[in-house]
Amino acid sequence: IQTIGCDFFEKRVVLRGESAVNLQVWDIGGQSISSKMLPKYILGAHMIFLCYDITDPQSFADVVSAAH
């Protein structure tokens, strides 16, 4: 099921039994890299995962061109 708008997941993770971090995953499902809202979603992010459809070569090409 495609995400409409934005979906958000959060989990507290303890690393090596010592320190805890909050892992947040924001699913902006299908929004264009040029979306005006994208900078607001990724503000302060330390890491970004870009996903694509391996059955659609254009999907991969879109991710590659957006990363440049």
Protein model, in words:
With 68 residues, this protein is an alpha+beta fold. Helices cover 24% and strands 26% of the residues. It has 2 helices and 2 strands; from the N terminus they run ββαα. It has helices spanning 38-42, 57-67; strands at residues 7-15, 19-27. The chain has a two-stranded antiparallel sheet. The radius of gyration is 15 Å and the shape is elongated.
Largest sheet: 2 strands, antiparallel
State the helical fraction.
Answer: 10-25%
What ranges have pLDDT less than 50 throughout 5 or more consecutive residues?
A: none
Structural class: alpha+beta
Briefly say what this structure is.
By secondary structure, this protein is α+β, with helices and mostly antiparallel strands.
Helix and strand topology:
Blueprint (H helix, E strand, L loop, with lengths): L6 E9 L3 E9 L10 H5 L14 H11 L1
Antiparallel strand pairs: 1-2
List keywords for this structure.
single chain; 68 residues; alpha+beta; two-stranded antiparallel ribbon; 2 helices; elongated
